[in-house]
Amino acid sequence: MNNSEKHKVLVVDDTPMNLRALSINLQPDYIVFVTTDGAEAIKIAEESMPDIILLDVIMPDMDGYEVLDALKKSDKTKNIPVIFITGLDDNTNEEKGLALGAVDYINKSHSKAVIKLRIKLQLQIADQLYTIEQLNSSLKDALDESKMASLAKSSFLARMSHEIRTPMNAILGITELIMQDASISPETFDGVSRIHSSGDLLLSIINDILDISKIEAGKLELIREEYNLAALLHDTLNMHILRLDSIPVEFSLRLSEGLPDVLYGDVFRIKQVLNNLLSNAAKYTHEGEIIMEVKTRSVSQALSYGNDSDIELVFIISDTGVGMTSDQVSRLFDLYTRFKTESSKATEGTGLGMSIAQDLLNVMDGTIHVESEPNVGSVFTVTIPQRRVGKNVLDSEVAENLRQLRLEHTDLAEHASKLGFERSLMPYGSVLLVDDTESNLYVAKGLLLPYGLKFETADNGFKAIDIIKSGKVFDVIFMDHMMPNMDGLETVRRIRDLGYDKPIIALTANAMMGQSELFLSCGFDDFLTKPVDIRILDSLLNKWIRDKHPLEAPETAHPHTDYDYDDTDDTDDTDGQDFHYDLSKQMLDAFTKDASQAINVMESLLKNRDTYTDEEVKLYEVRAHSIKSALTVINETELSDKALKLEKAALAHDMEFVFSETPAFIDELRAVLDKIS
Questions:
Q1: Span 182-209, mean pLDDT?
Q2: Do the beta carbons of residue 511 and residue 155 sit within 8 Å?
Q3: Which CATH class is domain 583-676?
Q4: SS3 content of the chain, % helix, strand, coil (to 5)
């Protein structure tokens, strides 16, 4: 209440003389209400909301205990402090009153001054509690506003990142295909590789933004599964071996004896942490050495975790790089922190990597410890609790091969030096690609070619189901999420109903929070976001094909150029035995097919504008989504943006916008087709 206002006091006593005495004593300082009846006291309390109530115990009809009980049961009056004031001396009565919720119990024999002081004290307490409640309410409102702002920001970042992925799919996919062409000149390759590297850096920034938005929203997902430790180390080091070979730094891997062969945990997030640490080590070390040590220790030697982890996996990455001051170490895990080197130029990146690494480790119950000294180097120690699967240990020959880290001088090694990592040939593997957008199939086929895989394609879910019904089995099916008539989720459900149990991986441009849970719950085994990061694609192919085949299969695979190719699409007349992409022709042929399908669907909806169905609107949305991607492949970005607006309008069922803007879009799309032809 306002400090300038008087407190209101309600006095309840069935003896008029007592009421008069208390009123005279209190009126100079308080606004006083009086009553001799318990029921009337309850009514006055609800209407006048006094700041405190002085309540007699012994009264006719309704005693003080009954009055207090009624006050406490009312949401309106339950917080009004009540002091029992009585002539009873029995401690039992005092205990009963306090137990019912009275704040004090005063004997009428006390002096007037004592009574006034006890009332003043309780009012001070009540005022303080009211102030605290107001502060808590303000803090809660501020916290709610902050959470809403954070969620809005995270949602915006995630959606923005999702939209950037569409043109990035074209940039990375097409440059990857050009770089595979051995006939291009060194100058062309250098220019294209710079485009690819810049696009790759942008993709890593997008992924960092997505991870930050997930972490801030508390939606970061762990996908735990059994994994092979040797494969984890191979794939992680494979990402960095060529960069390490390009700098005058000696790299060594030290593996402790008795490392477990198979573990259970989130292998993708562990790789992400290690990639950040190794990338920084290479970035800041210009001479000397980088050492990565791997060991384990039992939980009995470490901490006790609230899960079924029985060991700690320990990675120690040390370098002789520029090092850090104590102040820099204290700021190392802050968002957007980048340190400058002697040249006063900050290194590339967003400064999100180490912050994300720490957050990932926190989610995995892990830790990271840093020791560093300027001009001497740094040591990062990471511990991650994991569950050991089985009793097998890492084979000594496998461990020695990992330590050697040598690329053979083959065509594959040469190509690896161009792309930044080594890819394993898998001519024993088979893949089915399912995507309704011909341009996306074109890019995906090109990305899979260097692996020597046998693959087929289907441009809708019905064809994919027919292929499976024919008895064909694939090592992996890549399934587009968003397709007309029957989307990827429904297609997978029907395929699973046929008893097909081989891996199916979702292809989606949606990297929003919760997508992995959606796909895994609907029968998918994994998912791959567009634009396709060739390193993540490589990791998935290694996981679901290479590592599932007998050891002798990968060992006997050798580089070759005769890729087996089987495509169910009758419109593709490419000779699979000598598969060299004519980029412009094949790309434009694919786009022409996508555009024609989009125009047919859009014109059909326009004809039925008075009788359209929800299914027709959904098909329109899917085709707008598909042509949006296809337009970016041929660099028609402005028209792609218009397709995006149409897609969103159909999704929101904004038919006024759809019907008003579609005719002009179709005209522009036909103009693009005329230009191509």
A1: 75
A2: no
A3: mainly alpha
A4: 55, 15, 30
